[in-house]
């Protein structure tokens, strides 16, 4: 029984490494390689793969988002490819989902393939209930960005979204204000708004978004606008267009 495999990873080196290892397996056919979540959804919906090596961390649509959009009925076997720490890996292991921890060896990939082959034979009669339980959790629980890659001098660092006070639009960039520091990121305000937790961040102006727990007070301004004072003393403008949503969020427990 041949195993048709799809590789999904936004890192070219990782894709090439997985592909090189897989092509040495006599019963494996690599049916595709894609570099982003949207392309992965399209490929998986075609139903050509028996197994997918799925990167967890990808921009725009991550591995969990791919699973949610494809749905349980069309999803083949999954081997997560991840740089998560040991605690996250333990969470995967509870549900008997295999993983490759970057950087991985040929032997580790072969072990994952062996588990996939065994699971495929078992799935001929019924799905693994532990995998189904994990996928149901992913479908029911939306995931939002927890960290953002930002430039700090010559380095790229990961900024926790919980550190951000407010976000300012700057053409095709955004300026992240966090603890008195500023970080420039190439992203549009509209795109970032979709990727951040709407229970934590709220748009107050076409050029500004705030973390709701950083808001100290609102004061009426002119033409129906308000002045927003953050806990760090920053003053921003709340456009009347966004006023209702902001007031609704402020009434929720923080």
Quick overview:
The protein is α/β, with parallel strands linked by helices.
Supply database-style keywords.
254 residues, alpha/beta, five-stranded parallel β-sheet
Question: What order do the helices and strands come in, and which of them pair?
Answer:
Layout: E1 3-8, H1 12-22, E2 28-34, H2 37-45, E3 51-55, H3 63-70, E4 77-82, H4 86-94, E5 98-101, H5 106-123, H6 129-140, E6 147-152, E7 155-160, E8 166-170, E9 173-178, E10 181-185, H7 189-195, E11 201-205, E12 208-211, E13 215-220, E14 226-230, E15 235-238, H8 243-250
Distance between the termini: 54 Å
Largest sheet: 5 strands, parallel
The largest sheet has its strands arranged as 2-1-3-4-5
Q: What value does the Rg take, in angstroms? A: 22 Å
Number of strands: 15
> Total number of helical segments?
8
> Which whole number gives the mean pLDDT?
83
SS class: alpha/beta
- Helix fraction by DSSP (H/I, runs of at least 4): 25-40%
Please state the overall shape, judged from the principal axes of the Cα atoms: elongated
Q: Uncertain segments of ≥5 residues (pLDDT<50)?
A: none
**How large is the share of residues in beta strands?**
25-35%
H-E order: EHEHEHEHEHHEEEEEHEEEEEH
């Amino acid at each position: 029984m041949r195993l048709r495999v799809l590789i999904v990873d936004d890192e070219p080196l990782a894709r090439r490494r997985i592909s090189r290892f897989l092509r040495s397996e006599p019963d494996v056919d690599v049916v595709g390689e894609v570099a982003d979540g949207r392309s992965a959804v399209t490929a998986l919906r075609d139903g050509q793969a028996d197994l997918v090596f799925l990167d967890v961390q990808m921009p725009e649509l991550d591995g969990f988002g791919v699973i949610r959009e494809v749905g349980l009925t069309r999803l083949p076997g999954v081997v997560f490819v991840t740089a998560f720490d040991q605690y996250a890996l333990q969470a995967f292991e509870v549900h008997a989902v295999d993983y490759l921890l970057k950087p991985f060896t040929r032997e580790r990939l072969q072990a994952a393939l062996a588990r996939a082959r065994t699971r495929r034979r078992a799935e001929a009669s019924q799905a693994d209930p532990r995998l189904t339980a994990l996928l149901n959790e992913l479908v029911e629980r939306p995931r939002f960005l927890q960290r953002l890659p930002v430039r700090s001098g010559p380095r790229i660092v990961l900024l926790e979204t919980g550190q951000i006070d407010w976000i300012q639009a700057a053409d095709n960039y955004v300026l992240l204000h966090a603890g008195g520091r500023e970080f420039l990121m190439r992203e549009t305000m509209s795109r970032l708004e979709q990727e951040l937790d709407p229970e934590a961040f709220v748009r107050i102006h076409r050029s500004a978004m705030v973390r709701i727990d950083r808001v100290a007070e609102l004061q009426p301004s002119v033409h129906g606008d308000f002045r927003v004072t953050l806990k760090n003393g920053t003053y921003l403008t709340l456009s009347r267009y966004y006023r209702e949503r902001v007031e609704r969020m402020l009434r929720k427990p923080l």
